[in-house]
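Notes continue from the previous slide.

Worked example: a multi-chain complex. Inputs as given:
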Amino acid sequence: GSADAAAAVADRQLQLTKPPGSLGRLESLAAWLARWQGREAPLLNRVVILVFAGNHGVTARGVSAFPSSVTAQMVANFDSGGAAINQLAKAARADLTVVPLDLDRPTADFTESPAMSEADFLAAVNAGYAAVPEGTDLLCLGEMGIGNTTTAAALTAALFGGDGEHWAGRGTGIDDAGLKRKREAIDAGLDRHQDILADPLLAALSLGGRELAGIFGAALAARIRGVPVLLDGFVSTAAAAPLAKLSPTGLDHAIIGHSSAEAGHWRLAEALGKVPLVDLGMRLGEASGAAVAIPILRAAVACHNGMATFAEAGVDNKD
Amino acid sequence: GSADAAAAVADRQLQLTKPPGSLGRLESLAAWLARWQGREAPLLNRVVILVFAGNHGVTARGVSAFPSSVTAQMVANFDSGGAAINQLAKAARADLTVVPLDLDRPTADFTESPAMSEADFLAAVNAGYAAVPEGTDLLCLGEMGIGNTTTAAALTAALFGGDGEHWAGRGTGIDDAGLKRKREAIDAGLDRHQDILADPLLAALSLGGRELAGIFGAALAARIRGVPVLLDGFVSTAAAAPLAKLSPTGLDHAIIGHSSAEAGHWRLAEALGKVPLVDLGMRLGEASGAAVAIPILRAAVACHNGMATFAEAGVDNKD
């Protein structure tokens, strides 16, 4: 990131017609965008939402309230414009692209073997890396995949410690018996793969999923190309989290749009030192929690670039 | 409000292609808009922001970091499009109207006499009432007035109890000595007007200000005409609060856009039983905290009206 661009933003903020600091987080968001875009005047002309989709072998353990068939059905719903993210993307003037990753070939059940082969994992990472369009000013990352809050909880436990009870929530709304199965599956996965848990990439390969690997690849591409990232909820934050484990500053180009109602997300956000922009009790995924926060970044940019200075407006500054 | 419209929204939400409840507060916001608009499909075609401005005699007590001249200068800045609210209104596709109320005739210093005569108070209430355009789908209420966090704190103390120390914060950024003067002025006002504090309207007349009375009048007009209201920060919430004191449901058509960093706002929100939509550490006024929340309501409406149902999309519902 460009420290100069961030400093230029901070300097200009002090000259704008408002008490210093009174735009709160809008001020630091403008500086954050400038830093990662490497521009003194941050832009949000092209906001891109990528939704990666994948299927999960661990659903055989009865960990979700919905059948795996719903993943492909929801991808079709995305394609025909009927899902929440279609409406939210339109409202936020963002381009939406859905990237289904081998839906007819679910990952392996991680309680029995690694979820993916190295080739499968890298193919999904590469698909994510390649999916970030040139000229993207802000990248929002989300997912769809029945069973993937189980996957995300297992990966998070591998990266940050803790077990199924600590990290697993009700996902799309599973009942008590299902939640128990979910926690047991996570613990079984952690146990089976205990030898590789200290390696963030092997943990993502062994306990993750294709859509999580796609998010990881896209977040990596964004870092290299200077694109700020808006993460969605528990699954997309978990998917990007290996970057923070590979380098202490590896996720500094990403913020979290919304604090999910899925248990575990606020804990994961805290572990990453990130404060989500909003908390509206959502727990849908699909990048919906990122999309709902896009207008806050637009507000930050609009104020920063559009406001008059005290000198320009002839307004008396503080006594 | 229309309970039927709200119930129709709740029923449709259960059929949309998402786990029930997974859009969190976006679902209840759609129902709230429908209730007060009296429409089963809530609309946000015309969003109106009204910013009322006034000057305050209590500034003679040294309660603000900025001179009173700034009120008129900022109104000029609003008119020429250079303020934060101009950028935020444009970003949220809202119409902005600024209503200056006798800026060259400040209210009286409330530590010495009632801030306004009955005629002045009613003129300001009427100006607010008349300022709400026909066909408004959502009304955002904000203000500008050097010294008015002192006014708002005094009015809030009158309505909900407590003193200057409990309700006064640093406003635009006053120093320790100024904060002490501010608290003393509030306590002196409460003492001088102790006989009328139990009457919400007399409290607004005696301790309030013209821009607060304008907000009160506009919020009243909105209630009568079925227009949902988005309140801004501490001052606009305090200004509308007499409606809640006049009737327990008097402010049910209003929500708070943003939890202000101004001390007292979260306490006032709690006293009113309201949870602000976002908290971004802003403390500017000008309706900025309401404007930044408009896109969340647009998101709620877009999802509610635009999403496909399970039947329409051919998506399997919960097991």
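Summary box: Chain A has 15 helices and five strands. Chain A touches chain B through 61 residues (CB under 8 Å).
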